[in-house]
Amino acid sequence: MDLRDYLNVLVKRGWIILLVAVITAGSAFVVSKLQTVVYRSSIQLNVIPGRLDWGLQQTIRNLMRNYSGEIRSRDTAQKVINRGQLDLTVDDLLAKMTVSPIESDFLMQIDVDDVDPTRAQVIAQTAAEIFVEDKRVQMLEQDKHDRLDVSIRDSATPARVFWPKIGLLVVAGGLFGLLAGALVVLGLERLAADVIRQSRDIERYSGLTVLGSIPASPRSK
User: Fold this and answer.
1) pLDDT (0 to 100) of residue 50
2) Which long-range contacts (CB under 8 A, 24 or more apart) does 178-182 make?
3) Is 16 buried (19+), middle (13-18) or exposed (0-12) by CB count in 10 A?
4) Contacts for 100-103 with beta carbons within 8 Å, 24 or more apart?
5) What is the pLDDT of residue 216?
6) DSSP track, 36-57
7) d(CA 141, CA 145)
């Protein structure tokens, strides 16, 4: 098939592609509306060295990965549950929490996903406060030049919808529909490939030049 053939197929069967895209996008929208809404609250912690020493800064970057594990430890989780008076098990709470060190900026980010937006914010804020308190107690035993200033950069953000991302799902569904529709159209064209409709079809299959054609005889009245 040359470019003109593809354009003819697009004009003739383009509605199929659009129809499939609309159906898949609509299905994605309906499915996303049926899913349980999950909210996310986030909070960031500053981890600042006591002196601007390159070696100490490199040490902090390595420590931050360890700090991530401390925040997600079962001991910290139990403290969060007790202080927040949460009706959760330790495993349930840990499943909701993600800790990501941002080493280039000496930051640590705590993300909490929950179906209850208020509880998500409480968990994030409480986990940060407990970790900061524990680190400040530990730093009292260190020389002031080797201490780390761990502090809350800002309060936990109000929880916002994290999932489902309706817009993203609808766009993805539409793009998938366009691809699926195009495959359907190509399949239909392949099935009809052996059907001769025009003189150029004869030329393409036989390699011969059509010099003329006999018009269909008029129907008798």
Assistant:
1) 66
2) 178/17, 178/20, 178/21, 180/20, 180/24, 181/16, 181/17, 181/18, 181/19, 181/20, 181/21, 182/17
3) middle
4) 100/68, 101/61, 101/64, 101/65, 101/67, 101/68, 102/44, 103/61, 103/64
5) 60
6) PPEEEEEEEEEEEESS--HHHH
7) 12
pLDDT at 55: 66
Q: Residue 149: how many CA atoms within 13 Å on its side-chain side?
A: 9
Residue 89's region, left for phi above 0, alpha for psi from -120 to 50, else beta, is: beta
Q: Which amino acid is at 164?
A: P
Mean pLDDT of all residues in the chain? 84
Side chain identity at residue 8, one-letter code: N
State the pairing for strand pair 97-102/160-163.
unpaired
Which bin fits 149, alpha (ψ -120 to 50), beta or left (φ > 0)? Answer: beta
**What pLDDT is attached to residue 65?**
85
* Whole-Å CA distances, 56 to 51, 53, 104, 105: 8, 5, 14, 14
Q: Give the residue among 67, 146, 56, 49 at the shortest CA–CA distance from 109.
A: 67
Closest CA to 69 of 100, 91, 47, 90: 100
> Which domains, from first to last, does the chain contain?
3-34+166-200 (no CATH), 38-163 (3.30.1890.10)
pTM: 0.71
| pLDDT reading at 211 higher than 60 | no
Amino acid identity, residue 112?
Answer: V
